[in-house]
Design a protein that fits this description.
Layout lengths: L1 E6 L2 E4 L4 E9 L1 E12 L6 E6 L5 E3 L7 E6 L4 E6 L8 E12 L4 E7 L3 E6 L1
Parallel strand pairs: 2-11
Antiparallel strand pairs: 1-3, 3-8, 4-5, 4-9, 5-6, 7-8, 9-10, 9-11
Length: about 120
């Protein structure tokens, strides 16, 4: 199986910064597209930023110029540098990856989600 574990969330003041990390583990053959999503209470889960294996990025309009997604393929990790945070950025942030892995019986290629990390922005 593949496990994705997010870290780096917490409480920050309006205008502050946080850096989220996502670490992948398991019998992974490759990690393809990866991304960060977020979900605030009562809202749907929305894409924040995406990155391909080759490093091509895509951002939600609401975070362009403030957030930067990156990845380290050798470490099987992905990051989200969040600057100029606003109260409306508060949410649970989830890591998602499209991976090829061995699940103990066969090789699979699936989207996998992490458990999420809470980001709170105080005004």
């Amino acid at each position: 199986q593949v496990q994705l574990v997010e870290s780096g969330g917490g409480l920050v003041q309006d205008g502050g910064s946080l850096k989220l990390s996502c670490a992948a583990s398991g019998n992974i053959f490759s990690l393809n597209d990866m991304g960060w999503y977020r979900q605030a209470p009562g809202n749907q889960r929305d894409m924040v930023a995406e990155i391909t294996k080759g490093g091509i990025t895509n951002y939600a309009d609401s975070v362009k110029g403030r957030f930067t997604i990156s990845r380290d393929n050798a470490k099987k990790a992905m990051y989200l540098q969040m600057n100029s945070l606003k109260p409306e950025d508060a949410a649970v942030y989830y890591c998602r990856a499209h991976g090829t892995y061995y699940d103990g019986s066969r090789v699979r290629t699936n989207w996998v989600w992490g458990q999420g990390t809470q980001v709170t922005v105080s005004s």
